[in-house]
Amino acid sequence: MTTLSVNDQIPNFSLPSANGEQFSYEAHKEKHKAWHLIIFFRGAWCPVCVQELKDLEENISYFESKNVHFVTISTDELANLENLVKENNLSFPVLADENLEALKSFGVFYHGEDAPYEDHGTHGEPAYFLVDEEGKLLYQQKQTSPFGRPTTTELRKIVQYIGKNLK
């Protein structure tokens, strides 16, 4: 499993987006000279994840005022993510990582067939990566289950704290 440390350059990735386009992190980073909050979520089937995405959408203006853009990634099927975006009017990128490429390159935990407990089949677990405008890692949190993820309020505090204390 890949291990990223603070100040590491995050891996580049290119994945299909629920809006029908191919998303390239490198191109997005060049177009939007901003921090990015890259969030891995379990899938459209996960009610906690859906609520989290709705909360992010409700708070998007706050994060944009801090020059932070969201990118979300799931190992769920693209068709399910397309429906999720339409049903919830999500404006940020929602990407499908069905081949687990981004998941593996970021070292995100995967609940596979070999997992010690049953949990909605195979899927990636929640993870959060805040990166600066150059793609360097400022913060990360990876979960091995659906619980313990930061709330939108906590993410706001993390962005504020790091922004205030950045060297």
Automatic annotation (TrEMBL):
PROSITE patterns noted in UniProt: THIOREDOXIN_2
Q: Check the record and name the Gene3D superfamilies matching this protein.
A: Glutaredoxin (3.40.30.10)
Cite a single GO MF annotation: thioredoxin peroxidase activity
- A GO cellular component entry from the record: cytoplasm
Keyword Disulfide bond on this protein? yes
Catalytic reactions of this protein: a hydroperoxide + [thioredoxin]-dithiol = an alcohol + [thioredoxin]-disulfide + H2O
Q: What residues form the catalytic site here?
A: 49
Domain called Thioredoxin: residue spans: 4-164
Q: Which GO terms describe its biological process?
A: cell redox homeostasis; cellular response to oxidative stress
Which Pfam family would be a valid example here? AhpC-TSA
In terms of InterPro entries, this protein maps to: AhpC/TSA, Peroxiredoxin_AhpC-typ, Peroxiredoxin_BCP/PrxQ, Thioredoxin-like_sf, Thioredoxin_domain
Q: Indicate the enzyme's highest-level EC class.
A: oxidoreductase
Tell me its EC number(s), please: 1.11.1.24
Which CDD domains does the record cross-reference, listed alphabetically?
PRX_like2
Role this protein plays? Thiol-specific peroxidase that catalyzes the reduction of hydrogen peroxide and organic hydroperoxides to water and alcohols, respectively. Plays a role in cell protection against oxidative stress by detoxifying peroxides and as sensor of hydrogen peroxide-mediated signaling events.
Q: Which family does it belong to?
A: Belongs to the peroxiredoxin family. BCP/PrxQ subfamily.
Describe, as the record does, how this protein assembles with itself and its partners. Answer: Monomer.
- Specify the protein name: thioredoxin-dependent peroxiredoxin
Q: What taxonomic classification does the UniProt entry list for its organism?
A: Bacteria, Bacillati, Bacillota, Bacilli, Bacillales
